[in-house]
TrEMBL record:
Broad class of the protein's primary localization: other
GO cellular component terms, semicolon-separated: cell projection; cytoplasm
Keyword Phosphoprotein on entry: yes
PANTHER family to which the protein is assigned, alphabetical: CTTNBP2 N-TERMINAL-LIKE PROTEIN (PTHR23166:SF9), FILAMIN/GPBP-INTERACTING PROTEIN (PTHR23166)
Keywords, in A-Z order: Cell projection, Coiled coil, Cytoplasm, Phosphoprotein
InterPro entries in the cross-refs: Cortactin-Actin_Reg, Cortactin-binding_p2_N
Compartments, as annotated in UniProt: Cell projection; Cytoplasm
Domain Cortactin-binding protein-2 N-terminal: 1-88
Keyword Cytoplasm on entry: yes
Protein name: Cortactin-binding protein-2 N-terminal domain-containing protein
UniProt cross-references to Pfam families, sorted A to Z: CortBP2
Length: 106
């Protein structure tokens, strides 16, 4: 009978150890699940922030491209005016007079 009692105590100890390991595994899995959910949420936040930054940069690029086009047109216009002025000045220097070389009133 003593042998059965020792065997029962030993089995109870093993059962308690298994239950303890089982609880620890469950707790570890729950923690891993929580961390995964948190990482996923943070990843979603990062993705959202990156998408917003991409949109902002695309808008900035569009604005700057439009500004470059506007400045290029302005440069061409000013270059044309400078060429006209240069032609007028050289016509006047050759003795053409102030009235010559002008297409119309300024």
């Amino acid at each position: 009978m003593a042998h059965c009692k020792r065997m029962q105590e030993r089995m109870m100890g093993q059962l308690a150890a298994v239950e303890s390991r089982h609880r620890k595994v469950i707790a570890d899995l729950e923690e891993e699940k929580r961390r995964h959910a948190q990482d996923t949420a943070e990843g979603d936040d990062v993705t959202y922030m990156l998408e917003k930054e991409r949109e902002r940069l695309l808008q900035q690029l569009d604005f700057e491209q439009a500004q470059v086009q506007r400045l290029e047109k302005e440069q061409q216009r000013l270059w044309g005016q400078a060429e006209q002025e240069r032609h007028r000045a050289s016509a006047q220097a050759r003795g053409g007079g102030p009235a010559r070389g002008r297409a119309g009133p300024e």
